[in-house]
Batch of 4 targets.
Target 1
Amino acid sequence: LMMNKKQLQTSEKATLVAVAYQDHLLKDLAINNLSLVDPFKANRPSLSQRLKEQEHRRKVAIKNAKSTIDTGIKRKKALPQKDVNKQSEYVLDPKPRPLTLAQKFGLIPHNKDQKKLLTESEWGEVKKTSMLRDDFKSPCVICKDDFRVADQVLLSCSHVFHRACLKAFERFSGQKTCPMCRRQQYQTRVVHEGTKHFKHKSATKIQSTWRGFVVRKWYEELRRSHPPKNPILRKKFFEDKLAEITDRFVAETMGDTVDRFLQDIDQSVQSSRNIFRHFENTQLNTLTREQWTDIELRATERGVTECPICLRGLADCRHSNETTAIVKNEPIALLSCSHVFHATCLNALESFSMDNDVTSFKCPVCRSLYRKRIVEC
């Protein structure tokens, strides 16, 4: 009977140990949900549930909304301005993960920070250990990039990573294990020491670049204004000075030469235009009566019945501005190019011309210089 009791106790203990190990493995490997659903998505609400929750929150917000009337009489109190550059540290873990059954029995060791959250002094020691290794000055071991201004995460094992990199590592590995030392169930804290180091490094680089630029410009100006005492270098200094002055004079001379050349071309073109215009004016001024008769015949043969300016008939009657009487036989302007217009329309067009010279007016149709003659319709 005693043997049976001992065997029973031994079997119960073995069963309890086996259950404890199984529980630890299931929780450690995150396989407590053995269905085909992704364990990281098993507890997520469905899309319809999320939409219902959003609609419920919206209705509650509308119900609790209160109207306000601002007459502008009461002066609003100035809120204290927040320091944008101030960055605070905070812990990401709300509470440590509870111990598994195997860890409670002492079958599997557990971390000291798994029982309770680390205090501020303990986090200070962890950060000090990381800073002694210059982890914040080194790039992130996951993405191999500098921390820059992105959030950094300090683990309770004193290793530092990008917050986004660590989150991606945990999502794809399925375990909460440090990528460096493989420590499990660590605690995380957002820090900004890497950002401070990056800003200090950037400011130092900007200052060194600017100071180097200023010193180089000062040294170049010193070299240009103070000749050296060595005879060979002094000779070279004045040769360079003379070459610089000569090049400047040559450039100015070439510029003046080009300007004068272009000015001569413009004057020649203007002179040629004046000569041709004078020739055309001379020809137009010497039109005889027979030539005007020939021009009138050509205009009649063309059979134009509308004024190209106002698009009204050339033989239409018009109303006077001062009286309501109908005025017939509106005068028509016959041009030397055989085009015809209303005399009033042509006079209005000439009044809007930018050129005040009467001999420089051009026909609105063929763009040639003309002389006009008033004829009755």
Target 2
Amino acid sequence: MRLSNLTRPFWRPVLLDAVFIVIASFAACAGGNLLSAEDLAAPGVLERNLADIRIVSGAQNAASEQELLSADRALIQAIATNDRLAAARLLDPEFTWIDRDGRSRAKSDLVNRIGLLSASPDANITLQNYGRVVLLTGTHRLTPDNASALFARVWVRLPSGWRLLLYQETAPTDFSVPADLSAKDARYGVTRVQWPAPCDNPCASLPYKPLSSDAQEIVASFMSGEKAVFDGDADAASRILGDDVLFVTPDRAQPTDKAQRIAAMRNFRPTGQVDQPPAVASMALWVFGNAAVMSADEERPSGEMLRATRLWAKRDGQWQLAFSQQTLVQ
């Protein structure tokens, strides 16, 4: 059974952003919760600077990255102190949190329960800068059971400043998967299925209509990449994947990089078997210059549901996949 389609417009509602900012700013002023330089330097705020962060790709801009880290630090502080007004200012109107169980919550569901986002201090933080989109990834432990999780926070730069668009957590459920990625699909963690196995969705069609030329190109790249997986075409897949791409799945304790992904495709291709990528049940896409954020609900051939976040970067005129994270819906 598929999850109900998520309806998110491709064109960002600028008017809604403006109205929200005015209301949130007024409320924050009334409650004395404007974030000042002193707030960002408060002792309770997790201190981070660029020296603590591994920067792996993108056009590096120290001032912009430090501004982003200040916003991220302020959000973590707001969560820790249950300051809903301060947190609301930093969340995009279309913000979505995907928790470790695959539950999806919108901003309106969280502003009065911001403490749900609480976790232990972040570790192993990596920053990927794509201009108007910045990805922060790492690990932390979740309450109340202290379970380890891989997280991704996708920040986007608006005229009003940095806002968090997507926050996803994945708690791997199977640490016994062998290191040999040829035994299982490196991205989906599902055994290969027997012929015949058609691949219409997502190889040739999607339940999504792109509304701009960039969106059309991104969707075409996405479908080409999924078809390459289905066909076992490592060369085609390599052209779609950025050199810095990472795959986070619920089946593996550690992310998978491009070299591992391509090696798995080259080394394991028994006759009569194929990689069946998950079908897309719904999709949303936001484009910010040369970077784009994709969110999708997906269904594995086994019937399991996934929620996925992907980042795309335009390099040398081609949209390449820069990051993919999936969480199993429990």
Target 3
Amino acid sequence: MLSRVAQASRLGLAASRLPRTAVRQPIRFPAAASPASQFLRTYANKKSSPEETPRPAPKQPSPGPKDPAAESSPAQEPAEQKPAESAEPEPIPFHKLPDLTQGIPSTLEAELEQRAGKSPSSLTLGEEEAAAGGGGGRSRGPREEYVSTSERNRKWWTRFMLAVAGSGSLVGIAYMGRNWEDTIEAERHPDIPNGWSPALWWQRTRARWGESVSYYQDPAFEKLLPDPDPSFERPYTLCISLDDMLIHSEWTREHGWRVAKRPGMDYFVRYLSQYYELVLFTTSPYGMAEPVVRKLDPFRFIMWPLYREATKYEDGEIVKDLSYLNRDLSKVIILDTNASHVRKQPENAVILEPWKGDANDKELVALIPFLEYIHTMQYSDVRKVLKSFEGKHIPTEFARREAIARREFNKQRAEKSKHGKPSGMGALGNLLGLKPSKMSMTVPIDGEQDPTEAYAQGKMLQDIARERGQRNYMVLEKEIRENGEKWLKEEQQAMEKAQQEMMSSMMGSFSGMFGPKKEGGDGTKA
């Protein structure tokens, strides 16, 4: 113990003998940063870590008398400045700096990652850390996992609406499979009786669903035309199309929509109105076609106009089903320009080429002799006649057949006049000085030539019928010229009168519903 105290006293005396300059701390000067490193740091855009914060310089002692020992140690200063220079951060290499020549980099990705829950340090992750799932081993979802509130609401409402639609469909199917409510429904479906079996339930559902769909696909009425009037009945019915048959519509930038009437349309309609019950059967809607029809036929020679509402929608196409006409199909002919429109009854159809606005067209008028001949011969089934002209141009083929028949008729008449003898009635008439017309059992129409005289002159039956039709047409044209304006004015007045009566009736019903009730003579309310 005493030896240790003696040793410590010796060390203290030795230290007191040392000069004071030996134990004085050396003066430290902060190392000045090089200009190059400061220039590069301005582009580094790298925040210094807390460890790299520069430390405050040590306090320098107050100035005093210079010590020769301090002046004699200049070689120690570079060695003492090295630790300060090593603490300076290394500059970022130039190739790792952001490229600002293309503009400031976008921070959208960083904001989305931060909103998704990633730490801000993910902005500085290197490629190796990103590939290894950096960020301290913390699992982060991909960017696609972020869903906005509006997107979540949209998905929720979509699922909700699908669920409601599915539930409604199931309820509707179950309701449509119920038993028939009355005898009318049961009579419409005699092959599907009432019952609670799944098979009968499904059959009733299909039957009711078919009726619901057919409401929009089938014609508006089961009978498109009323029953024929015996006082104004025509033996045949002729259905005529509108678009590219009687008219042609086109649109141009200069004039807009324009409608052209086919040459001979008035003559065709007015002449055949004496032989046929004319029906306009078009695929155009009522609102579009009705004004055109009234302009084309102001005197209403077309008795029954039928529009899009009278057609049938089948397999994606519009079809004119003649079975809804309420007429005998053996007496019905339809003229159309589209074979798909008459595919239900092709044996009743005459397909013509569409008219494209040619002012010199004569196809419509050339068809009149054929239609007139059918009426003259009074065929029991027009479908057999149309079958014989299938695949041929009807006006040309009919003219060829008529020429052959005329040659045969003239040949027979020549042979009969050469070898024949007058009959008993003819000889008696010659003896009495009577003309053959006076001996005929048929009474001709006023102004019409006797058939016997017509035959003697070489006229065939269709020639006589044609002359009669021409006379009737001339009389009709004369009546239109003389009284046409008066007929149109009377029709206009009748329409205005009907509108006024309808308005007065409607106002009377409203006043009766909301107005004060009148009191009778006995004090009671009428």
Target 4
Amino acid sequence: MNIYVSGLSYRINDDDLRQLFEEYGEITSAKVITDRETGRSRGFGFVEMANNEEAQRAIDELTGAEYDGKVISVSPAKPKTDKPRNGGGFNRERRGGFDRGSRGGSGNRGERRDY
């Protein structure tokens, strides 16, 4: 089971996160998410545990616990969605106020004018 852990101290690294969960069972992976540019922790991470029952026990016992001076939140991770990171939406190419097929001019094409 993949577990989402938030509220982590910015000093926590992957090894610290692994050690926190090891007493509950076998850890497949532990990763603190860091900022791409600065390398600094973003205050949350993910722990993958091999056994779902052990993972649920860790979630139950660690939610609301204090770790390195901060109260952490622990929950099952939500699976990634296939949504584009730019917000999605239909036909994102259109950015301006004009339709690509428009040639400009007045909107009265084909109507007779009485001058």
